[in-house]
Amino acid sequence: MPKISQYELEREANIARNRALLAALELDDAAADLGFPAKPPPDAKTKESSESKAKPVQPRKRKHREEETPVPRRQSTRLRTVIDPNENPSKKRKREAEAEARRAEQETARLEAEERARAAKRPRHQDLDLHTVAEDGDATQSTDESSWRHAADPEAFVYSAKETDKEDAEISTLRDALQGLQVASRAKVTQDRIYSIAYHPERSKDLIFFGDVATDPTTEEGGRYWRLQVHWPATSKSSISTVKVDPLDPHTVYTTSYDCTLRSVSFESGVSREIYAAEGGALLSSLDLPPGGHEIWISDAAGGVVHLDLREERGKARYYGLSSDKIGAISVNPSRPHFLAAASNDRTVRIWDTRQLTMESGLLGDADEDLDISEDIASAWGYETVNEFAESKTGRGTMRGEWKHDKAAGSVYWDARGRSLVSTSYDDKLRVWDFKSSAFSGNAQFPSMRPLRVISHNCQTGRWLTPLRARWTENPDIYPHFTVGNMQHSLDVFSAKGELLARLQDKSKITAVQAVTCSHPSIAERAVSGNGSGRCVLWAPEDA
Where is region (Disordered) located (predicted)? Predict the structure, then answer.
């Protein structure tokens, strides 16, 4: 009798232990399925047991359940087609023609799907139906407001030295109203940062337009919102740099985008239409319209501005290089629409008299051919050409004033009277100007461009926050004031004299910088702000 090795003894012991465990669990069949040998009888020969150990483990045979339905295997169309070996030539030709037609149809469908996918990634130059671009709800609701924006009296809220008490009373009343504002509602309208904002003049409801990076929205915490993808499909190129409500028709909204286009959205007709496209040009950074509503001024990242007259046919736009660097904001004087303020990364805020910048005057000579930035541009003049003309005797009075900041000027805006200016800059200063009406007469330079007030204000938003912009109220019937975000998570409100009227904050609900702000153009006790994570906040009285 051969001697059994220690390894075989241990193996037999392990098998016995496993068999006992399976038997205790009533899994004898499972033991057999796993390949364990059955328990040998006591009188079994050692030779037979050693032979059984030498046999390979047999694979377990699967037991098919009667209730299981066999899954059909995938087969190609060629294999599924049963071909009659005795098929005559005519039937064969017919069968092959039908197969070829099916293949052609499938190929056409594939190519059409690929073309639709490519088209979804292209900029949108065609007219768009809002029912198509609206991702949630009915986006064609109308409002009851008619022409809402009108030029204010430039001498409104101007007080003499003897009327300081009257002015103090106006400011005190406004301060009391603004300090009573609280967080009325919040809503996350997009996943990414909010770039721009506009408050609709509708009085019966709060209608607010946010321009964002155009990604998918997630949650909603208050109110109702719609998302319209009217520019380049949801990419970084679709970021909305500016949103403006038409001063003549509040049912129409204008937007500029990083896809280098300007579009109008009509909520009456339900159509989004392209107004201007700077194909191959610089990014469009801002736009503004005078109260008359027939003209549009657009600034870009190359230091130029585009002038559009909506009464003219497309292709009559004019381009002027007003700076050697990016113009971040442009503002049309509402009471004197031919005066234009521009803030640039070259650290300057300049005031231009645009009556000189017209092709009809013939003063600038021939257009610069190398600046023909798009088919929509009828004429274009570069910065050097405009600058030389402004410094010439003929062009005297084209640039009426200039102020140099310590760092890049991020924004500048006229108030509703067209009398005061406010600018923001990366030198951490807010600057407020107040010009007398006499300064706008004639062609001479402004007597002084020294700011009325310089306010220390942290503007270091960095890369991931929208740059802070100080925005005046468009309401001409109340004392002029402006809103601006604060890096300490508040919304600050200042008067036209640079006095802090209110610092709106709620640390229990707001933990982010309110970088983008504006106020209601018809109601004093309304303001709105947005942050870099796509959340907006409505500020209103407690009983609103």
Answer: 33-151
Instruction: Tell me the pairing of strands 317-321 and 377-381.
Output: parallel
Summarize pLDDT for 483-496 with one digit per residue, the tens: 999 999 999 999 99
Instruction: Determine the Cα–Cα distance for residues 431 and 451; give it in Å rounded to an integer.
Output: 6
Residue-number span of the structural domain to which 29 is assigned: 6-54
How many whole angstroms separate alpha carbon 433 and alpha carbon 343?
Answer: 14
Structure tokens, 199 = 């408050």
Q: How many helices (H) and strands (E) does the chain have?
A: 8, 28
In a domain, residue 294? The reply is yes
Assigned domain for 240 exists: yes
- Within a domain: 69: no
pTM for this predicted structure: 0.73
Are both 277 and 359 inside the same structural domain?
A: yes
Bridge partners of residue 253, in order along the sequence: 245, 265
Q: Is residue 76 part of a domain?
A: no
Bigger pLDDT: 212 vs 539 = 539
Q: Which amino acid is at 444?
A: A
Residue 385 sits in a domain of what CATH number?
Answer: 2.130.10.10
Per DSSP, what are the bridge partners of residue 187? 536
Containing 110, the helix (H) or strand (E) segment is helix 89-119
Instruction: Give 538's strand partners.
Output: 185, 528
- Token duo for residue 251: 């049912």
